[in-house]
Design a protein that fits this description.
It is a single chain. 71% of the residues lie in helices and 1% in strands. The protein has 16 helices and two strands. A two-stranded antiparallel sheet has the order 1-2.
């Protein structure tokens, strides 16, 4: 596939290692800290199997992302994919939903970062979160060639932190029967909770236009990052159960802290807090970057003002970065955005369904189009795994709170309404000009 290199395209500076690091960095977020205990309540000592199953189920949708990214390696990701199949209002709504989800994630995770800073210093949470947003916006504005090294370093430290937890607890493996859990129903219930921990792998695709040989590199990075994250999650779960036992793990509010406490004593909380600080900083940087690339992709196709499609020296859409930063910073003023953050999880689930549908439709409508990566296992023209991906996503969405689903529906309809209002205004303006 020919890669354009004009003044309005990105420099292609990312290779497989940096892209994989970005994927691992965004997948291994707060999920392992928040969901390990509740998942253990459902699965017992089999919680590690819940993590493994959740990773495999996430792979169903990841494979669909891989096929579409190999066909349409663009910064707009879901917006670009939907544009290939559906009317423009659908692609706009998809882009709107994902951009909104990313901006809310930036605000939410930056607040999480600030709370971990409070472990060491007496700081104002909102101002600390704002300071982090300023920092990551400046890093993102410097371009991916520079930012990718920070992301690589932070991701390496994230992984290293979890490996440290594993190493500290590995001597306890064998102390607990890892198969004495709550059976298949418990494993499935735990997987439904843990499914949240894998959200984020799709953000790699927003870096497509900055990636060398994107049609091949993006699918490989997706597969590697999801595999590495799943292995780490399973290992941490095995060690945590072995150190704490299933009952204590289920009742623990800070399971990783308790695991490290077993080996390090009173300094455990500080160790885990440092790992969490690195994790939340990296995640904030990645989601702000992804939000700006989504806005850039939409603007490039005329669905947002062209000002957001401008590149500074071919390495950063600074206007889009500034907009993502400003909106995330404004959300800090709202106060408790927990409900909004939960609603954006529902939006991501909706995107998973949409992407799987797009793969199926394109297989039927355009079976002869070259696919550098192709989802395996097809019956006739219909790929089986995307069908399973749709079913699994709908099943997992049953764990969402009804209020979150209702709010997510409202946010989606708001995006659709916004598209038609803007279209009407532009139509009237064109009519006047004639």
């Amino acid at each position: 596939m020919e890669e354009r290199q004009d003044s309005q395209t990105f420099q292609r500076v990312l290779g497989l290692p940096h892209l994989t690091a970005s994927g691992v960095g965004v997948i291994i977020g707060a999920g392992i800290y928040v969901l390990l205990g509740p998942a253990a309540q459902e699965a017992g000592a089999l919680v590690w199997m819940s993590f493994l199953l959740a990773g495999l189920l996430s792979a169903l949708s990841a494979l669909s992302y891989m096929e579409l990214a190999s066909m349409f390696p663009r910064a707009g990701s879901e917006h670009e994919f939907a544009r290939q199949v559906f009317p423009r209002w659908v692609s706009f709504t998809a882009g709107w939903a994902m951009t909104l989800a990313l901006i809310v994630a930036a605000a939410t995770v930056s607040l999480g970062f600030a709370r971990y800073v409070q472990v060491f210093f007496d700081v104002n949470v909102k101002w600390t979160a704002f300071a982090l947003l300023v920092f990551v916006a400046l890093v993102a504005a410097s371009g991916m060639k520079r930012a990718s090294w920070l992301i690589f370093g932070l991701s390496f430290a994230q992984v290293g932190g979890l490996i440290l937890v594993v190493v500290l607890g590995v001597d306890h493996v064998g102390d607990v029967d890892l198969f004495a859990g709550n059976g298949l129903s418990g494993v499935l219930a735990g997987s439904a909770l843990i499914f949240f921990a894998f959200i984020g792998f799709d953000e790699i695709i927003t870096l497509s236009e900055e990636t060398k040989d994107a049609s091949r590199t993006i699918p490989r990075a997706l597969l590697l990052s999801l595999s590495i994250s799943t292995i780490l999650y399973v290992l941490v779960a095995v060690v945590s159960v072995s150190v704490l036992g299933s009952q204590r793990l289920a009742n623990s509010k800070q399971p990783l802290t308790d695991v490290v406490l077993d080996a390090f004593g009173s300094g455990a909380g500080n160790i885990v807090s440092v790992i969490a600080l690195i994790t939340t900083m990296n995640t904030t940087l990645l989601v702000v970057t992804a939000a700006s690339r989504m806005a850039y992709g939409m603007a490039s196709q005329g669905d947002l003002p062209k000002v957001f499609a401008r590149l500074h020296n071919r390495f950063a859409p600074r206007n889009a970065i500034a907009a993502a930063f400003a909106l995330a910073a404004l959300l800090l003023l709202v106060g408790d955005i927990h409900q909004l953050a939960a609603a954006t999880d529902a939006l991501v689930y909706l995107m998973f369904v949409l992407v799987n549908v797009i793969v199926i439709v394109l297989r039927v409508r355009k079976p002869d189009v070259v696919r550098v990566f192709r989802v395996p296992l097809t019956i006739g023209l219909v790929p089986v795994l995307p069908v399973l991906g749709i079913a699994v996503t709908i099943l997992m969405s049953s764990q969402l709170e009804l209020s979150s689903v209702v709010l997510a529906t409202g946010l989606t309809l708001l995006g659709t309404t916004l598209f038609f209002v803007v279209s009407m205004v532009h139509g009237k303006q064109r009519a006047k000009q004639k």
